[in-house]
Amino acid sequence: MMSMVRLLPLAFALLWLGGLSPAIAQEQPAEGELGRTIDVGETGYDVRRLVMASACPHACPWGELGEFVRDAMAPLDYEIVLCRNCNRIYGPPLVARGERPPPLDRINLATGTTERVDAPVDFGVTESGMLDQAYLGEGIYAEEGRFPNLRLIAKLEDPTYLLVAVRADSGITDLAQLAALDRPLRILSDFQGAADAVLAHYGLDRESVESRGGSIEFFMRADADTPFDLVVSALGSSANNLESRPWTALSEAHDLRFLDLPEELIANIIADGRAQPVTMRWGYLRGVDHPVRTVGRSGEAIFARADMPDDIAYDLARAIDGARTDLRWFVRPYSYDPQTAWRNFSVPLHPGAARYYQELGYMDESEPPAAANIEVETSLGRVSGVGEEGLAVFRGIPFAAPPVGSNRWRAPQPAQPWPGVRVATEFAPACPQPDQRESAVFERHSLRQSEDCLYLNIWTPAEAPDARLPVMVWIYGGGFNNGATSLPTYSGENLAARDVIVVSIAYRIGAFGFLAHPALTTEASDGSSGNYGLLDMIAALQWVNENIAGFGGDPNNVTIFGESAGGIAVSILAASPPARGLFQRAISQSGGSFAPPRTANEGGSNVPTLVVAEAHGERLFETLGVDTLAEARAVPVEAILDAVGPAIPGNLFWPVLDGVVIPDDQYELYADGAFNDTPILVGTNDDEGALFVPQGPPAERYIGGVRAGFGEHADAVLETYSGGTDAEALRSSRDLFRDTAFAWHTWTWARLQAEAGGSPAFVYYFEQRPPYPDIPMLADWGAAHAMELPYVFGTLRPGRMDWRDGDRHVSDLMIGYWTNFAKTGDPNGEGLPEWPRFTPDAQQVLYIDETPHAGSVPNSEQLETLDSYYRWRREQRAHEQSR
């Protein structure tokens, strides 16, 4: 029940949605474009024509505040273009990204918005709690992650109450009676979160209300004739606008009894600091016959991006203050308070606005804005980041030229220097990729995408350039076909808080990053093609080597770390000649690349030979209908993504044994001592395969698949990974996937490092089962693939999982192990259970759960079976090569 109680502070902070609930805010037209799109001409800072995220013209709060700002800025010779459909949840992301408004929908038309502005959005207005949540990446913005480049310009007061009322003839005189009701209860609410949270305090939830024949309906659709017993809404106001009008209609048409909130519930609601205890006075609405104890919130925020020039932010703050007396004539009871105009929870104040408030004496000069810009000189020019929670953070620094046009399918080219200071406060777009699929455990993230995507991000705690802190460079996973540095799980602040610098790098993926083709091979000076994504990683590491000292990092103490495809990339770089000397330690989570190369459809192999990869590239060119490289480089991104589908499976685009970046079978390279000898920390999760095999194949199909992939070793594989029944086939399918894709590679890598290298190896086995949603499909899952990621990054955010204290304990341990390894090459440290070194004679691993402990290699019988299979494959390959 407590998880539902926690929803109320969230719900209360999200209620001001430009007149609509989140569920309804997602509604889109079935087909075609509604209204009309207008070209408003040139806009932007340089021409003093700014586009403002506003809302509808029919007394929508953000609509009339948009008009207020527009009129206030006119005397200062600014023209403000109002985006009327930048409302609901859209405003903060549109401003943060500088994007154009979304298409109009039926809701826009219903509230009087018939035109869409076709221009990038510069600044906006929204509810102050929503701005805070967008900045932090919480609530309805949790899936998209933080928008750290948002900055406050001014906050205006706009008080509303959380009100709970019942019909006077309902017999309910106290909220505690709700749990004992034995009849249907009809509820009106802003949206289900608020109703569920209030009801949960009394042991009720939406399901139980509806199981008794009751209902929870949308408050804003209510009128005098709507049947109800109980109303719960945080839009309590006497203002006659869309959001609050139902309170007036219901209270005038019915005799209502307004109920006090108990102090315990009030304490829960105000816990996040976005609301405060208040008393609604007698007579505020009809039926308020006593002072009502409740909570209230007050605040609408005018906000901008960090890159808004200081003089424009200054003028905005000055104009709003200068026109404050006009606020008294609007529909809602707005006001301007010099003591609060420059504060908005955790959202930093824009430095330009801060200068105005300091000059007027509203804020003391000893209180500088929380996000003062931080500048660092790089080899290409100065970059400006921001201060966040004791760190300096830089997002979107280019490390290579855009791989577009003639640079498509070429090694990364040097980025061009820039004049002045480049603002680096926003993540760059992700590299082109298919849309993410929704799953039971992973939230879908809407990614901005562009072929111009070779950028990196830095989180540094260094207080001076000479700090010489260890550096951890993150390489994302995603099967070499998906992934982005901007995913909230990968946010680096928690690792950086342990005195390391975190760098996350982008690389090309899918057909853009791993396409080989005979024409490309001929064009290349080294006679190779297909490993552009790996070359991107190497270029980023070269940038780190040249520039990280300016951010307080030690270029001679760099750890590369990655998961899944990122972990495989770490493995490949550990034996890649072009990467030699660019890193001193390596961490691979569920990654490794030690199987023989793929020449057909052999089981357990992924890396194709150049000949095989070139054949895949020729198939793509045929699908696209192009004959030359020039034609292929002119094909739109979307057409290539569409072509990589059923006809050309995405998993055909994988790192290639090209003889240059990947010079040979990695197993053989290690056996010959031809690798980059560094300490390694590697491991897998106990149920990796569950994510890939959620429902097993029938036993007959499982057995057929093993026989097709493993040839004469199929019998041995089936003896170890039995599939006599459907249940056995499911378990064995998962285990075989875990071991062929990840576990055998990890074990083999550790053995080869321990035998052939001079640096230590440390191996883990992650067994902490996350608190999965209560879904039957997940009931038998252990620690599935990628489940360790939020523990490593400390990003156990509210969402689909209700994280426990034990999970936070495991996360703290893993952050300690990972950062210790980055500092010294040894994960052990004070307060951590001992992690033994993996040696040929003592193959010990650390089992990671709430009580980490050392033990022998898990699943050793299965791994030995696969080791025999891969040995046979190598013998076959050697025989073929000798012929």
UniProtKB/TrEMBL annotation:
<dbReference type="InterPro" id="IPR029058">
    <property type="entry name" value="AB_hydrolase_fold"/>
</dbReference>
<dbReference type="InterPro" id="IPR019826">
    <property type="entry name" value="Carboxylesterase_B_AS"/>
</dbReference>
<feature type="signal peptide">
    <location>
        <begin position="1"/>
        <end position="25"/>
    </location>
</feature>
<dbReference type="Pfam" id="PF16868">
    <property type="entry name" value="NMT1_3"/>
</dbReference>
<dbReference type="GO" id="GO:0004104">
    <property type="term" value="F:cholinesterase activity"/>
</dbReference>
<keyword id="KW-0378">Hydrolase</keyword>
<dbReference type="InterPro" id="IPR002018">
    <property type="entry name" value="CarbesteraseB"/>
</dbReference>
<protein>
    <submittedName>
        <fullName>Carboxylesterase family protein</fullName>
    </submittedName>
</protein>
<keyword id="KW-0732">Signal</keyword>
<feature type="active site" description="Charge relay system">
    <location>
        <position position="785"/>
    </location>
</feature>
<dbReference type="Pfam" id="PF00135">
    <property type="entry name" value="COesterase"/>
</dbReference>
<feature type="active site" description="Acyl-ester intermediate">
    <location>
        <position position="564"/>
    </location>
</feature>
<feature type="domain" description="Carboxylesterase type B">
    <location>
        <begin position="375"/>
        <end position="862"/>
    </location>
</feature>
<feature type="active site" description="Charge relay system">
    <location>
        <position position="688"/>
    </location>
</feature>
<dbReference type="InterPro" id="IPR000997">
    <property type="entry name" value="Cholinesterase"/>
</dbReference>
<dbReference type="InterPro" id="IPR011852">
    <property type="entry name" value="TRAP_TAXI"/>
</dbReference>
<keyword id="KW-1015">Disulfide bond</keyword>
<dbReference type="InterPro" id="IPR019819">
    <property type="entry name" value="Carboxylesterase_B_CS"/>
</dbReference>
<dbReference type="InterPro" id="IPR050654">
    <property type="entry name" value="AChE-related_enzymes"/>
</dbReference>
<comment type="similarity">
    <text>Belongs to the type-B carboxylesterase/lipase family.</text>
</comment>
